[in-house]
Design a protein that fits this description.
The complex is a heterodimer of chains A (271) and B (233). With 271 residues, chain A is α/β, with parallel strands linked by helices. Chain A is built from ten helices and ten strands. Chain A has helices at 63-69, 100-106, 121-131, 137-150, 154-157, 170-182, 200-213, 226-232, 250-255, 260-266, and strands at 23-34, 37-48, 52-56, 80-88, 91-92, 107-110, 188-192, 218-222, 235-240, 243-249. Chain A has a six-stranded mixed sheet, sandwiched between helices. Chain A starts with 22 loop residues before the first strand and ends in a 5-residue tail after the last helix. Residues 1-19 of chain A have low confidence and may be disordered. With 233 residues, chain B is mainly alpha-helical. The chains are: A alpha/beta (271), B mainly alpha (233). The interface between A and B is medium-sized, with 17 and 18 residues.
């Protein structure tokens, strides 16, 4: 039986052999359970800084579960259990002394369905930073502008910052949610099917945005749309039934994957 | 291992159709080469003219195959093996169409040769043409059966054709040096031999693409060693 590190047993949360400077997040032999059901098996992946990694696979393969694991969103689910390590800048985020809220600030998340707060556009952006202790009108205004510019939304909303976020279109709401995450100055942005609820033009704008954002952030994106994975990502991980089947440069995965199962999936010969 | 079928039956049918079209095109071009050499051996200008006229069919099929492939690229966004197959098909299609044009060139020279007495018995020319024709057949066989070793065998045969072509040149050179009255006919025969050598180059090009389709490796600008190991998939 292979040895697995139970996250509760990790006393020393700092991994001294962190390795290459380029790797910002690592998973080491991660198993994940929803109660008795094992959703992820033995996942070991390195995520490089300032790269976009796509996670693909059929429904139920565990890709969204893995994504949520990377910033401890699964903590909120009853009966959820992690084994193994998830290292962020060398530190195991599941170590007992780590604050999950701080993890989620450094590793932000954007969801499939845009979920702006029922507040003004401005307050959507500044709500998180204010809770984190940022004060001063000028500072908050500068932060809002910077975040909205990064999300390529500033020009569209700069004159209506006081308006409710709910009056924005779907694509604008999603960019607002991205700006909201960026306002917390994360290092990593997790995106769970960020464009599947949007029209093609909004989708294209957000894909363009992802390309721009990766200069500053590391992005991990779950997507059902294989062409999107091919367009936006540098590396792609293919999952099936909770296992990582192949993890390679995106170009390789889509032109000449190593594993037949990967090829069957991306050419539509699955099931 | 049995290949899985695509979720869309129509897509699977479309891919199969492209393959079949290429096989048909290959059969047409092989026949064109065979007939052009027969026209040379039999001094049959009518047969030569028939080959020239039939090239229109090869051109038409070439257009159809290309349109099908472009349509598939646009509508299906193929990836991995499908992408490699369709891009390979487009290139093979181009090679076969050029081979058809070369059979026409051979027949044009045959028609001219038939206006003069035969210079010498044709021994090496039919040999070289048969090798080239076999290369075309085997390269398409390699495509259908996904046989890298067969594709590499075809790639090696190109060198045999190159040597034979040079041999033919040397022999014809001695004819021309001995008797200037043979120059016109010798040059026409040299041109035919050179054209067959170019057919063989195209057949090697087809085999190169078959290797790419199967393995993902680009070997277009490499020549295989005598006993090349098939690259692993």
């Amino acid at each position: 039986m292979k040895q697995r590190a139970n996250n509760r047993d990790v006393g020393n949360s700092h991994n001294d052999d962190f390795g290459s400077d380029n790797i910002i997040v690592k998973t080491r032999r991660v198993n994940f359970y929803y109660g008795a059901f094992q959703a992820l098996t033995d996942i070991s992946m390195d995520f490089e800084k300032n790269r976009v990694t796509a996670l693909i696979g059929p429904s139920g393969c565990g890709k969204s579960t893995l994504l949520r694991l990377l910033n401890r969103m699964n903590d909120l689910i009853d009966g959820a259990r992690v084994e193994g390590e998830v290292l962020f800048e060398g530190m195991n985020i599941y170590a007992p002394e780590i604050d999950p809220v701080e993890v989620r600030r450094r590793i932000g998340m954007v969801f499939q369905k845009p979920n702006p707060f029922p507040k003004s556009i401005f307050n959507n952006i500044t709500y998180g930073p204010r809770l984190a202790g940022v004060s001063g009108k000028a500072e908050l205004e500068a932060l809002a502008e910077q975040s909205l510019r990064q999300a390529v939304l500033w020009d569209e909303v700069k004159d209506i910052l006081g308006r409710s976020a709910m009056t924005l279109s779907g694509g604008q709401q999603q960019r607002l949610c991205i700006a909201r995450a960026l306002a917390m100055k994360p290092d990593v942005l997790l995106m769970d099917e960020p464009t599947s609820a949007l029209d093609p033009i909004s989708t294209a704008k957000i894909e363009e945005l992802i390309d721009e954002l990766k200069k500053t952030y590391t992005i991990i994106i779950v997507t059902h749309n294989m062409q999107q994975a091919a367009r936006v990502s540098d590396t792609t991980g293919f999952f099936y039934l909770g296992k990582l089947i192949e993890y390679n440069a995106t170009e390789k995965i889509f032109t000449n994957p190593d594993v037949k199962q990967t090829e069957d999936y991306i050419t539509g010969r699955f099931g | 291992m049995e290949e899985r079928r695509h979720t869309s039956k129509q897509y699977e049918t479309d891919l199969q159709e492209v393959k079949e079209n290429l096989l048909y095109l290959s059969a047409l071009t092989q026949k064109a080469i065979e007939d052009s050499i027969q026209a040379l051996l039999d001094r049959d200008t009518d047969l030569a003219r028939k080959v020239i006229a039939n090239d229109a069919l090869i051109d038409k099929l070439d257009d159809e195959v290309e349109e099908k492939c472009i349509r598939l690229l646009a509508l299906r966004q193929p990836a991995a093996r499908d992408l490699r197959f369709i891009t390979t098909a487009i290139k093979i299609n181009g090679h076969l169409e050029r081979i058809g044009d070369m059979a026409v060139k051979i027949c044009e020279k045959v028609a001219l040769l038939n206006e003069e007495p035969q210079l010498k018995p044709y021994i090496d020319l039919p040999r070289i043409a048969e090798i080239a024709r076999t290369m075309i057949r085997e390269s398409l066989d390699a495509l259908v059966s996904e046989d890298v070793e067969l594709a590499n065998k075809v790639r090696r045969e190109d060198e045999v054709v190159d040597s034979l072509n040079e041999q033919i040149f040397r022999e014809l050179l001695t004819f021309m040096m001995e008797d200037p009255r043979t120059i016109h006919r010798a040059l026409l025969i040299m041109q035919i031999s050179k054209t067959v050598e170019r057919i063989s180059d195209h057949a090697k090009g087809i085999a190169d693409m078959v290797v790419f389709m199967i393995t993902g490796q680009n070997v277009r600008h490499q020549w295989p060693a005598a006993e090349e190991q098939a690259p692993s998939n």
